[in-house]
Structure formats: C-alpha cells, structure tokens
Amino acid sequence: MILEAIMVDLNDEFTGPVLDQGRWLDHYFPHWTTLDRSAARYAFVPDGLRLRIDHDQPAWRVEDGPMRTSGLQTGSFAGPVGSSTGQQRHRTDGLVVRTAVPTRHLWTPSAGRVEVTAAASPDPACMLGIWLVGVEDGAPEDSGEILLAELYGSMIGPGRSTVRLGVKAHHDPRLTTDVTDHELPLDATTPHRYGTEWDETGVRILVDGHLIKTYDQVLAYPQQLMIALFEFPTAEDRDPAAYPKTADVLRVSGSGR
C-alpha cells in the first residue's frame, strides 16, 4: 500500500531565514491575476512558516470577489499572456492569462506520498487548504486534484473538527468528483498531519497517520503540492485590529516518482 522504494525528495521544516525557491513558488496561480495580488504573505516563526492575510492585502482576482489568499505551490504552468491555457481554469467566461509564468516542476511526482503538518486558522472567514493538483503542461485534462484537507475556521475547534477531503475531477473526464466532510476528534487549530498516498491503484488520504478514505481513482500525471490560507471577507469594512489572519505550516515531507 505504501510506496517503499522511493527516495524522499521533498522535506522542509521552514527554518528560514528565507523560503527555499528551489522547492516553493510563493504565489497562488499567478497567471490568472497580477503578481501583487497572487503574492503570499508569510513570516518564519519558531515552529515553521506562518501564512498571513493582512488588512491591506488585495483580493486575488477582482472578478472573483473579495477572496484573498497567501499560498505556496511546487509547480506552475500557463500559456502566453492573453491565452486561456493554464492550470485551474476555474471560470469559463473570459478567463485569460494575465501574467507570464515559466513552467516549473519543483516537486511534481505522478505517484508518491506527501504529508503536511499544519495548524489552521480559527477565524470563521478563513480556510486552510492543502491539496495536489495536475500541472497540466502535458494535456489540459490532466487537471485532477487530490484534496488532503480543507479546514474552515467555522468548522474546527477544541475537541472536534471537520476535515473536508477527497478527489476533484476539474477538467479530467477520467475522474469523478468525490469530496466528503469528516468530523474527527482533533483540534485543527493545533498542529496535525494531513497526508496522502497515490499510485496506479488509487488514492489514500490520512490524518495523523490514520487512513480516513480510500479512492479507486487514478491520477497518473504530474501533481504539484499547494498549501494556502484563504480569507472570504463578508463585509467591505474590515477592522485592522482583527488582522493578521494566520495559519502555520510546520513541516512538509514527500516522496515521489
């Protein structure tokens, strides 16, 4: 079940003082927006990396509403500026590439395992997401996603937390979207381990080393790791004293082929 003979090729405890650019791109799908809007805000803290949403942070894309994000990813791909080719084509109404990005394969295995130790934000307007998604430079249908965890501040807390996980098809006709909520006896605002193993037999998703869900769906193309803190503001007026909103990433370890 677990891939035994694979060298660990992603291991980061975020000790700083700067982010390892050989492992991480500190932007969230920058091709669909501008670099000032896609740029992550973060700081190194004693236990790892603290993702941050600040009071003055702009929305990721004006057309997508006030959602703001700070995230890391281990790959990137998009067509030329003005084209509609790029990862995570989340809209069909005039979505075009605005920022040219090089194709990057910093850590993009087609099979392997990965585990992220993280502590989510308790803010009800925030969500910490951890997922793998197809790089799509081979074919646009190679876009499927393995969702290790979506941790909404409104659904986590002392004693029990809801972890959303699963497989998302996106534009891959070979897959079926299967995402479910799991209430687990843990406080997701404290550090926990969210992991997956995927290969030609399917996908397994684990929390703190315990198998939560198995899928017989196969994503046999390069996947990049994504870790991002999101804020979904409910009002235009924001109290500066309520910021920053934060989530911590303590460790990432992965093996792949």
Task: Give the helix/strand layout.
Blueprint: E1 8-12, H1 35-38, E2 41-45, E3 48-53, E4 68-73, E5 75-76, E6 104-105, E7 112-119, E8 126-134, E9 145-152, E10 161-168, E11 178-184, E12 192-199, E13 202-207, E14 210-215, E15 223-231, E16 245-256
Antiparallel strand pairs: 1-16, 2-3, 3-16, 4-15, 5-6, 7-12, 7-16, 8-9, 8-15, 9-10, 10-11, 12-13, 13-14
Q: What is this entry, summarized?
A:
The chain is an all-beta fold.
Oligomer: single chain
Please estimate the helix content. under 10%
State the low-pLDDT regions, or none: 1-7
H/E series: EHEEEEEEEEEEEEEEE
SS-derived structural category: mainly beta
Q: Could you tell me the radius of gyration in angstroms?
A: 17 Å
What is the mean pLDDT?
A: 95
CATH topology: Jelly Rolls
Distance between the termini: 15 Å
The count of DSSP E runs of length 2 or more, i.e. the number of strands, is 16
From the spread of the alpha carbons, the general shape counts as globular
Strand content: 35-45%
* CATH second-level architecture: Sandwich
CATH class: Mainly Beta
Q: How many structurally independent domains? A: 1
Main pleated-sheet profile? 8 strands, antiparallel
Instruction: State the helix count.
Output: 1
Domain GH16: 30-257
GO molecular function: hydrolase activity, hydrolyzing O-glycosyl compounds
Protein name: GH16 domain-containing protein
Organism: Microlunatus parietis
